[in-house]
Amino acid sequence: MKNIFHLKKAAFIFCALTCCYNSTASSQQDDYSVTATVSTEFNPMSSSWYTNPWPESDIPRRLEQLTPSVITQLGQTSGTLLEVDPSTTYQTLLGLGASLEHTTVYAIRKNKTAEQQKEVLRSLIDPVQGMGMNFFRVSIGTSDFADGTRATPAPDNAKGWYSYQDTPTLPFSIARDESLGIIETIRMAVEVGVETNNELKILASPWSPPRWMREGDNMVGGGPLKADMLDDYAAYLRKFVEAYQAQGIPIYALSMQNERQFEPGTYPGMVITWQMERDLLIEVYENFHNIDGNYGPELDVKLWTLDHNFDYWQQAKLQLDSFKAMGKDHYVDATAFHHYGGVSENMGQLHDAHPDKDVVFTEGTIWGLSSDGNKRSYEALIRHFRNWATGYLSWVTMTTQTLNEANQGPYNGLGAFDPTLLVKYDGDNANWYKTPEYWLMSQFSKYLKPGAVRIESNYGSLQTVTNVAFLNPDGYVVLIVANSTNGVQQFDVVSEGNQFNASVPARSIATYRWKAGLGQSPHPWQAPPELPQFPYAENSIEIPGLVEAEYYDLGGAGAAYADASTGNNGGALRADDVDIEANANGYHIGWLDAGEWLEYSVNVNQGQSFDVLIASASAGGGGQFHFEVNGEAVSPILVTPATGGWKTFVSTLHSGLQLNAGEQVLRLVIDGGEFNIDSFHIVPAGSVEPPVQEDICEEATVSILAGKIQAESYCLASGIQTENTSDQGGGENIGWIDAGDSVDYGVSVTNAGSYTLNLRVASQNGGGEIALSVGDTVLANVQIPGTGGWQNWQTISVPVQLSAGYQQLHFGFINGGLNINWFEFVETDNPTDPTDPTDPAAELEEGAYSIINEASGKALDVSGVSTSNSANVHQWAYGGGLNQQWIAQYVSGNTFELVSLNSGSCLDADSGSDNAHQWACQGNTNQQWVIEGQSDGTYVIRTKTGNEVLEVQGGSANNGANVRTASSVNNNRQKWRFNDIE
C-alpha cells in the first residue's frame, strides 16, 4: 500500500501546484483559456509489462486533465521561458501512427469477435475516444515480425517467410495475407477511420522481393536484386497496390526496400546501393504513371526512398541530387528514416539540401522520457518534428504476452523486444491492456491533426523542459512539452503578446491547446501566489537512502532554499537561484556561502542515529555544514576535506545525525563555504566503513602505460583549473597553474623500463617547472619553454624510468605559468614522433565505426545478429549490418567502451575466460578498452583490466573465426582499423 499511497500523494501535490496558480480559471474560461492534459512514464522498458503487468490504474497519469490556465497580458517571467510564434511556419503534418504487421494483426484478432477487434482499432484511431492515429505502415509480403508458418498456402521457407509470387511462372497472389487475417484487419482499420472521420494513410514497405528476383535465389541472405529484374519488380509492386485497392485498402505511399543497407542473416532483408534504388524508383514511377508503356491504370501512390537510418542521409542526398540532375526529381516524394543509427538532426540536414522534399520518420520504438540517453524516448519525437519530420510511425503496435507466439524473427523474447503500446493477455480470453507508452504517444497523436503546420518555438533544454508547437487547421495552437527530469518543472509561455504559466510533473509529457490570433488578453497579469513546498521528485526521499543534492524541494526562495546570489550560476538543471553545475556523474551544487540552506522532504523509516556519507569537492577544504529539522539542529557542525579540485568528489563519513521516524523536512545548512556537494547518503550509524582516502586515485579511472593521458583526466588536483583548448582534437587543457599547485593521475605501467615522456604544453613566457614523482621518488624535473601564447602548443620530451604496476603520478609545479593539454609515455624501444600532430591515437573520436581486422580484412561482428547477453563476438565479412557497427564511447584518456549499434550492449572481456562477447553496458572495467594508435594507422585494442589485446584467434581469415583476448605478440591479427560509418 505504501507505493499506492505515495502515487496518490504525488498526484495531490501536483494538482496543488497547477490549481494554485489557476484558481480563478473556472470563472474566466473564455477564448483566453489554455486546456491541457498530461501523461507520465511508469517502469519504461520493463519486461514485467509482459510477465506481470501493472494495472493501468497504477500508471500515475493517463491523459489527465489539468485545470485550464488563464492567458493574461504580458507581465513578469521567471525561470524557463517558452516563446511560441504562430506567424513563423515550417512543415505540414502528414500524420502519426504505427504498424499493422502480422504480429500486431495476430494480437488484435486473437480470441476476438469482429466487434472486439474493432474496439482495439478504435482505441488507436478514434480521435475522440482513442489515440487519433491516422497513419499506418504495412509490409509487402513478410516482415521480421510475422509468422508465415500459419499461412495458407504454406510457404516453402521453414520459418514462414513469404512473398506473393514464389516462382516466375506462378500467379501473383495475396492469399497468404488473407489467410493470416492481415487484409481483413487493415480493411477494418480503414473502415474505423471512415466511421470516426479520421481518414487513414497507409505506407507499404517490402522486406524482400520474391527470392527468384535476387542474385542468391533466397529471401534471407540472397544478395541484391538482379539488375535485369527492375521492371519485373516494378510490375510486382503494381500488382500489390492493385490487389490491396481491390480489397478496399488504398495505398498512400510505397518505399522500395525496408532498411536497404542491412541484410540480416535470420530474416528477409536486402542491401541495394542508392544507385540501384534510384533505378528501381524510376522503373516504379514510370510503371505507375504509364510512361513509355502500357502498364495499366495510373496509380496515385507516393514514392519514398531510403527507409533506413538517419546516418544514411548523405546517400539519400546523393540520390536526390542525381534525380534533379536527370530532370526527374518529381519521381520521389519523400525520404523515410529509422532511428537505429545517426541522429534526428540528419533529417534536418537533408531537408536543408532538398527543402522541396519531405522527410518522414517511418520506423522506431520508444519508451518513457529518457531511454537510450533520450535517443529512443518520447522526447526524441519532439526532436524529430523539430528536424522537419512530416510524420511519425511507431514499429509494432501490439503483441501477445508470449512474444514468440506469432513472431518467427529474432526479436521475439524478453529483453529482445520491449513493451508495445498494447498487449494481449495470454489465455483463451479476448482481454488486452494499454502500457504507459499508449498514453505518452497519445499526447501527440490525439491532438495533432493532419494538415497541422509546425510553428516557431524555442526548444528549451533537457535540464528543464523541451517542446514542439503546431497550428492545427482549426486555428488552435498545440504545444507539446516534455519533462525528462526527475522533478516538476515550471515554465512561462509567451505568444502573440500574451502569456501563461504552467508546470509539468517529472518524466511526463503535457499538451497545451489555445486559440491563436486572439489579440491582447483582457486579463491583466497577476503575480502567481507562493507555491506550496513539496518534494522535487514528487515523493519524499526514503531514509536510509541517497539524497542527490540538486533534488532539494520545490517551493522557491525562502521556502525550499536560501541562496545568497540571484540566478543559477552553474546554469544547469533548475531555473531558480541555487547554483547547480554539471559534472561527470550528473550534477552538484556549488558556489556555497555561509548562511545558505536547502530543504529536502524525507520519510525516515525508523528513528535512530545516522551517519552521513557526503560526496564533496574542494580545492582548499574547510567547508562546514549541519542539519536541522523544524529549526532545531539534529547534527553537529561537519567539516569537508580538501579534495584537490572543484570537481574531484570524495566521499567522507560523518557521524552524529539524529532523526525521528516519519515524514519531515530536513534542512542542510551551510556554515562555511568553499566546497561543492554532489550527494549525501544517510545510513544507520556504524553500518559502513569510512572510505580510505589514499585509494582515491586507484578507485578512479586508471590509465594504462605506455599510452596517452588527457591532462584534465586527473584524480586529484590542487589550484589548477580547466579550460577549452584550441589544440588539435579540442577538449580541455589544465591551466592557471601557479607555484605550489599539483595534479595527480592513477596509472598502471605494463612494462618496467625506459620511457620517453612527451608533454603537450603552452606558455606565454616560459619559466615553468614540473617535478614529476611517484611517492618519494622524483622521476624527472621538466623545464617549460616559452611557446609565444597560452594556446600556442608545443610537444617537449624528457626520459624517465618507470617501474611496473599501479602507481600515482604526481606533477608538482615548482614554478607556474604554463598550460598542459596531454602527456604520453612511450617505451624507448618503440618510439613515436612526439611532434607529429597526426598521431592516430589522438584522431580516434567518439563515433560510429566498423572495426576491421588488419590480418583478415573481416569485421568485428556479433554472432547471429543477437541482442542477448553473452552472445559471441567473432569476425565476418563486412556487410553493413548493425551487428558489425560499433559506437566508440569515450571514457577517459584513450579509453573507450565499444557499444554494438544492433544491441546497445558493450564489447566485454569475459571474466571467466579469454573470450570476447557482448553484455549489457554496466561501466565495468572489463567493458573498457584502451585504444592504442599505431604508426601504420591501425589500432591495438587493449583490455583495461590486464595486459591482453583483442585478436582473431589463430589469425584465421575465415568467417566465424573467434575473437578473444591474448598476450600481445605485435602482429596483424591483433591490429584493427576503425572505419567511419557513412
From TrEMBL:
CDD domains assigned to the protein according to its UniProt record, in alphabetical order: beta-trefoil_Ricin-like (cd00161), CBM6_cellulase-like (cd04080)
Alphabetized InterPro entries for the sequence: CBM6, Cellulose-bd_IV, Galactose-bd-like_sf, GH, GH30_C, Glyco_hydro_30, Glyco_hydro_30_TIM-barrel, Glyco_hydro_b
Keywords recorded for this protein, A-Z: Glycosidase, Hydrolase, Signal
Top-rank taxon, per record: Bacteria
Example of a GO cellular component annotation carried by this entry: membrane
Signal peptide: 1-25
SMART domains: CBD_IV, RICIN
Any single biological process term in GO: glucosylceramide catabolic process
PROSITE patterns referenced in this protein's UniProt entry, alphabetically: CBM6, RICIN_B_LECTIN
Family membership: Belongs to the glycosyl hydrolase 30 family.
PANTHER family (alphabetical): GLUCOSYLCERAMIDASE, LYSOSOMAL ACID GLUCOSYLCERAMIDASE
Protein's UniProt name: Carbohydrate-binding protein
Organism the protein comes from: Saccharophagus degradans
